[in-house]
């Protein structure tokens, strides 16, 4: 028998004989003359209906059990489905104790409930849809960069660099090092940390390959249990050589966002619809759709990311908007202070709930590698943040300081010249104007799915009681 995935069986145009489908039972309905099963193998949100003789039923054929069904693929008489499988044999590969199985048939479990079972929650429809969307979005991001001539670089996970300069680092030690703290000898001879960004390593590669990107795990030792922070998350980062315009960096961010979102909407329409219908804050999504005269949040996304993606303001303008706001903020907006999440969300709302680029941040607010704008009394750097509805900051980028005297001077003032001598070498040997950006992958998923809690867009939630974590 030819093995078919559920998605292939549902999408088949013609009947087929002697096929085999393997998966897990989602429902069992036994009638006097016919046995109905719905099975799923994770390839599709939709289940494949199996029609069988009641004599094929046995005590192990229950919700959650793993089965292998052989038979003929035939046209379904029902309008809601194209094909169904007429079973000739049903073999229970792995039985399931339905009394102790925490997921119940035909129940829509809230995310708070399934979060208690990180080792089983992928069998829930919502998390199954999320993982398929993650997979397609990951492939779309890689395809975007490959199609535009970028070289994929695997940047180190263990590094001695603190690229962000925020000090939120997980230090790496061996078990012996932890015990022998009185007489410290580092495994790598220097303190080593889990990476917070692959940017500096990408800059090395951009000096040879012009356009490079990485897509991998990054870590923040930020002791926060909030709905928008993770200790481990995935970051998309890119560097572009031979660019002197912040607009070039912004254009790549916009094109990446549009391309990835278009792919997800076209390849996972049912999975995305599940989130918009049952998971996302319904009133908020209806409000946004109504604001742009759309009939659904799905069409709102298309209009938002393909027609309205053009709002750009300076940091100066952002601060003035915030100061004139009627809303009272927990953090008072002042020039020279970083924008807080509440500020970022207000700016998006002020601009009509469309993505907003904020550019040219204060010099003293940003890391050493951002390019000095050499502007008047309000000293700024060529930096950009992309703010989106409901999330705040999604992407951050800048032009990099390619001028050796400027970079040397700043590193000396910060006392980092010795540690970053190798970074100065990049400016001595064939330096070119360049820029880049990073995008938090989980925040991107939150944005397109309308999910409120970032821990619901990762495969395994942290801080769980599960022995797996």
Describe the overall structure.
It is built from 14 helices and 17 strands. The chain is an alpha+beta fold and 469 residues long. The strands form 3 sheets. It has an 8-stranded mixed sheet with strand order 7-11-12-17-16-15-14-13, sandwiched between helices. Helix 1 links the parallel strand 1 and strand 2 (16-30).
- State the helical fraction: 25-40%
What's the Cα radius of gyration?
26 Å
Q: Beta-strand level of the residues, as a percent range?
A: 15-25%
**CATH level 4 superfamily of the largest domain:** Bira Bifunctional Protein, Domain 2
For this structure, the CATH topology of the largest domain is BirA Bifunctional Protein, domain 2
Which structural class is indicated by helix and strand composition?
alpha+beta
* Name of the CATH architecture of the largest domain: 2-Layer Sandwich
CATH level 1 name of the largest domain: Alpha Beta
Note the main sheet.
8 strands, mixed
Tell me the number of helical segments per DSSP (H or I, 4 or more residues long).
14
Number of domains as seen in the coordinates: 2
Query: Which word captures the global form?
Result: elongated
Mean pLDDT: 87
Number of strands: 17
Subcellular location: Mitochondrion
GO molecular function: asparagine-tRNA ligase activity; ATP binding; nucleic acid binding
Organism: Nipponia nippon
GO cellular component, one term: mitochondrion
